Amino acid sequence: MATNLYDQAYELEKALRTSEEFLNLKKMYEEVENDETAKSMFDAFRNVQMELQQKQMSGQNITEDEVMNAQAIANQVQANQKVTQLMQAEQRMSEAIGELNKIIVKPLDELYGMMNK
Amino acid sequence: MATNLYDQAYELEKALRTSEEFLNLKKMYEEVENDETAKSMFDAFRNVQMELQQKQMSGQNITEDEVMNAQAIANQVQANQKVTQLMQAEQRMSEAIGELNKIIVKPLDELYGMMNK
Ligand SMILES: [Ca+2]
Ligand SMILES: [Ca+2]
């Protein structure tokens, strides 16, 4: 790969690493990491989410019990401020990554647009 | 989003736009675009690929006829040098994008690694 591409990718990585979005996410992770209750809720929520996602992706049915269990965990989680702050921080980071990606691949979008017109 | 993140994303976009990978891809697209035979093969191949992918993603069965038809088009396409060069250029560009993404999200990988250990 061209050196300049690498260089610019590393500069963006550095900017991401020092961005408010990332530093805030890191702080919120640490808050949850250092709080046993928050941590176990967060882990439980993440595990349930991943299980359901995997089932959906592999075409398996999700039972009513599983939906209710996931809902119960989601409700608990929403009552924990540290976990909700972490989730908001994740959401903001993920939106920023989405925006960055949109900017970066613009040349490709334009090229494909040309091709398909 | 923080200004510096935007700035660095735009610098990377500029680097991508002037990279050998992108300029080569653009050239190969134009070659195919200006060659009726190559263009119609390429479009047919892309359409068949997309159809099969959509079927797969929506959980529909792919018939033996459809597989054979896709294979026949793939064979034609592989005999056309302009189309194969375009596909190679796409492959190289997509690998470069993959590498860039890996670099950019390294801070997040590290953070998640910390969280899950
Ligand atoms: Ca620079
Ligand atoms: Ca710069």
TrEMBL record, chains A, B:
Query: Which superkingdom does the taxonomy of this entry point to?
Result: Bacteria
**The protein's name:** UPF0342 protein ACFPM4_08205
| InterPro entries (alphabetical) | Com_YlbF, YheA/YmcA-like_dom_sf
Q: Provide the family line.
A: Belongs to the UPF0342 family.
* Gene3D superfamilies (UniProt xref): YheA/YmcA-like
